[in-house]
Write a structure and sequence with these properties.
Blueprint (H helix, E strand, L loop, with lengths): L7 H4 L66 E2 L3 E2 L3 E4 L5 E3 L4 E7 L16 E11 L2 E13 L6 E2 L4 E5 L9 E8 L7 E2 L11 E9 L10 E6 L5 E5 L16 E7 L1 E9 L2 E9 L4 E7 L4 E2 L13 E2 L2
Parallel strand pairs: 12-18
Antiparallel strand pairs: 1-2, 3-10, 4-9, 5-6, 5-8, 6-7, 6-20, 7-9, 7-10, 10-11, 12-15, 13-14, 13-16, 16-17, 18-19
Length: 319
């Protein structure tokens, strides 16, 4: 049986449907979170230091809890070599409150999000809530997804403000432990229209986000490439991989395949191996901003940002 047009079933559900997309599963690796005693508060959103930035969302977990993505399973990561991750996972104890990352209207609050079938307890997202945001981007709507809940508190049709409680952290659906799976969807409320949440969530004050487009000499993206990012002052090493294949979408402006958020401002050395040689570059992270770099095979690194778009990138009214 053919499924509905992408995104349509969520706002105007009229009966059981089947999905056309590939099966998705959320199984984060159970690693200990980084040991960080203190983080500054988040910038107020929306934050757009440059015209192409779009930090529109807060975090779905409160500031007094660990509220940054699991490093082992970021957007575009691949599990079991064939399941790509369409969001970020934020580790939190069972029963932790899940908060609205922005103001919007609840368009889904049930089991069955992936299958587009309310009440389907076999759904890999478990109990989930979806918000249609009060703001959009470039005239198209934005949605935020909160999955694997142990309890849903929000109800469909409810309008919520940033920080309102939507539900409680759990481990329902296909997961190995309690956490919230958070997605940002643009244009359609569909798992095929997700974008990297680390490009949308406001960073801590004084911290920034590293974004890269790493390709071979022909311009083809290098997939699942291990990249080291070391703070030259503190020596702290962060590891990130480029996106894997599948249902992930780069930002149409950055065309990135690597994002690493929550980096304290400062100088970093970026290192990876390509074509049997170590490649490295020193890159400065600026507070409240995206720092963008490219690597194009034998042409090496480029540190200039993409050309400034001729559009207004602040949030636009939603439908």
């Amino acid at each position: 049986m053919a499924g509905p047009t992408a995104g349509a079933a969520f706002d105007d559900y009229s009966g059981p449907t089947s999905t056309l997309g590939p099966f998705q599963i959320e199984l984060p690796a159970q690693h200990s979170p980084p040991v960080i005693d203190w983080r500054p508060p988040l910038y107020s959103m929306p934050l757009a230091v440059a015209p192409y930035d779009h930090f529109y969302f807060a975090r779905p977990i409160a500031a007094d809890e660990i509220n940054w993505p699991l490093a082992s399973y970021r957007y575009g990561g691949v599990f079991f070599e064939d399941v790509v991750h369409t969001g970020v996972d934020i580790d939190a104890p069972h029963g932790t409150r899940i908060l609205a990352a922005g103001a919007g209207t609840v368009v889904w609050a049930d089991w069955g999000l992936f299958l587009e079938t309310p009440g389907a307890i076999e759904d890999p997202y478990g109990m989930a809530v979806v918000l249609r945001m009060d703001f959009g981007r470039l005239g198209k709507p934005l949605y935020s997804v909160y999955a694997h809940m142990s309890e849903i508190i929000a109800v469909r049709g409810q309008h919520v403000e940033t920080g309102d409680v939507l539900g409680l952290v759990g481990a329902t659906g296909a997961t190995t432990g309690p956490h919230v799976h958070f997605e940002v969807r643009w244009a359609d409320n569909s798992f095929h229209h997700t974008y990297n949440p680390e490009l949308w969530m406001a960073p801590p004050e004084g911290w920034g986000v590293l974004v890269g487009r790493i390709t071979d000499s022909r311009g083809s993206g290098l997939q699942l490439l291990d990249v080291q990012v070391r703070n030259t002052a503190s020596g702290e090493l962060r590891l990130v991989r480029t996106y894997g294949p599948g249902a992930v979408n780069p930002d149409p402006y950055y065309r990135e395949n690597l994002v690493l958020g929550d980096l304290p401002a400062g100088l970093y050395k970026v290192t990876f191996r390509w074509d049997d040689a170590e490649r490295q570059e020193w890159i400065r992270i600026y507070p409240g901003q995206v720092t963008y770099f490219t690597f194009h095979g034998q042409d090496g690194f480029g540190l200039g940002p993409p050309p400034t778009p001729e559009v207004e990138w602040l949030p636009t009214p939603g439908p």
